[in-house]
Amino acid sequence: MRSELFVIVFHFFAFILLMQGLFPFSSSTNQISTRSCFNSPKSTNRRVIIILIDALRSDYIFNRNHSFYLRSIGKLEEEKKALSIKLRTHTPTVTLPRLKAILTGTIPSFWDVLFNYNSSSLEIDNLLFQYKKKYPEKKIVFYGDDTWLKLFPHGIFSRSYGLQSFFVSDFKEIDINVTRGLYAELDQREQWDLLIVHYLGLDHIGHAYGAFNSFVQDKLTEMDEMIEYVYSKVDSNDVILITGDHGMIDQGGHGGSSNEEIFVPAVFISKGFQEIYRDENEYFQIDLTPTLSALLEIAIPFNNLGILIENVLQTFQLIKKTNLFQCLIDDNRRQLVNLLSNTKLSTAFNDLQQIRQQAMKLANEQDFLMLILSIFIFFLSTILLWFHISKMCSIAIVISILFYVISNRIFVSLSIGIISFCFIGFKQGQRRSIDYKFEEKTNLSSQLLIYYPIFHCISLFSSSFIEEEHQTWYYLLSTYLFLRTFEQKSFQYFIFFLFSRLIRSWNQTGNKWLNLPDIGDFLNNSFSSLTPLLYYGLLFYFLIRKEMSIPNILFCLLFLICRTHNCVIIVIYMIFYEYLPVTDGSLAFLLSQSAFFHLGNSNSFVTIDISTGFVGIPIYIPIIHGFFISLSTYGLSILWLMKLSREQRTIYLLQLTLINTLFSVCVLLQRYHLFVWTVFAPKLFYQSAQTALSFMLFF
């Protein structure tokens, strides 16, 4: 049996353990709130319209010093008919966890990032459930992102029209359909009580072209026209809420924790406002949940961690109703204390902020045992790569089953089975011989290949080095090529060195300098229309060769689906692949890691380019889109592994598994770090995906 097969399985399991220990599933319960300050089944007949604009950054509302802002909001504020507040979201800043935060008031789990592409129904207490529970005869209508229909598939909406949210090449038609439905509902206001619309065009433009361009200006103008029309059709008793699920960085991505991603506006609009109480404070996005509960006159969802925004209640004149206002505050406090009642955390606080901080500890509690087990499995499976597996290892399956029968703990039982498997493998298996000899041990370049993994592994203990990991690989690649130029007295290596220096400036990535202009920005603004000529030249090159190997097919696909300005990088890497002699697993690993960052990737979710999954695909096909996105992210990296022999790949994989092992130790030591979401989580995600793709080439 091949040890590589077991190593990939064990590494995947170790990654799951590590993620489960670092980011446990949500601790929310299925209990339903039954107490409310609004006991009467009658309501104020207030109609509420919630307009959610995907990727609506806060500066599109609050920054009036540039041309990218919603002028309609400024106009309504001058008329004292709009109250704008700034909300801080929690990471990850992607749609599904943000919708859950607004609807339930809970802090999302990291695992919601994975479910973002195929969400399931929302089973815990939420605003829409409470609304239908109190007012079963009232109608909720929805138009927009079909994620809502996946969250509520069982008759919550009286009417709905869902649109595919991941077809990111559609900037206009998708929003036209939403607006058409919105305007039709405004003409039959007696047919609904709560109207929700979710616009997607702004987010799609961001993914394709960034946050500041002519497409964004046109989209904001379109939203202005929509807001003005909606305002003209409502009466003084109605409420309009305009907000965003998350923001986006200047380059258009989102998922991290930069200010551009985590701050969104919430604008309350009503013709009935008599006085606006301006508020410069910042609130959490989850604070919308109890505030909307008060405006809808329903119970606060049971798992809510949000706190009532008093300034909004004051603007809606609810504070003047002294008894009601005090009841709302007490109900919010009681609901938060209930979350702590079955824990050891203290409930001896009267201040809502302190109670909330205690309750948040439940959502971030980490499993130390899981972290330790993951490190141990990483370590053992890395060593296992050196051994031929014995059939006696099957005994470990029996051990795992017996332990599960005794303990009824699936993760721990599987961990015991894997550990037993590894120990039996070490004892019974035959160690394989791996040749680590370099042709020129005295050369500085060869010494660099031997020792650079040590420097890289040490750098993983710094969150800043993880965020800016590309700088490490750029430095190592340029240094290696520079040394080889002098050692070989080779003009060819000098050209490779110049190319490596050129393409490192092609895409700014990482975190600290992501906003700086780069060559890609210049090409997109100036010469992008010339880039297709390179593609025709590439096709002609393959035509005269009369055959296409798998690497050439991959290069062709990469050229087709990558961002336009990255076509030159694909061509340069083709030259590298043809003429750079790579006969060592360590050098291949160095080149593969540099290639990942040269395309503009980083250890952050914001640089995942989902637009590459839709090149030439007119409909939404998840498998094909997933393949294209994975290829555009890891294609250049995997190509270097394909150039090696099986024995040389083992050296490559040993470095990869060693990094996984040491990084798991780094995670354990820094598990309470401030950037645990935005640094460790993406790095774990990328590292596990690269490990899987690398091991697959063995079979």
From TrEMBL:
Domain GPI ethanolamine phosphate transferase 2 C-terminal: from-to ranges: 446-534, 558-691
Cellular component terms per the entry's GO annotation: endoplasmic reticulum membrane
GO BP terms in the entry: GPI anchor biosynthetic process
UniProt xrefs under SUPFAM superfamilies: Alkaline phosphatase-like
Gene Ontology MF terms: CP2 mannose-ethanolamine phosphotransferase activity
Tagged with keyword Membrane: yes
One Pfam family matching this protein: PIGO_PIGG
Coiled coil residues, start to end: none
Transmembrane stretches, start-end: 6-25, 368-389, 395-426, 447-466, 522-544, 553-576, 619-641, 653-672
PANTHER family reported for this sequence: GPI ETHANOLAMINE PHOSPHATE TRANSFERASE 2, PHOSPHATIDYLINOSITOL GLYCAN-RELATED
Protein name, per record: GPI ethanolamine phosphate transferase 2 C-terminal domain-containing protein
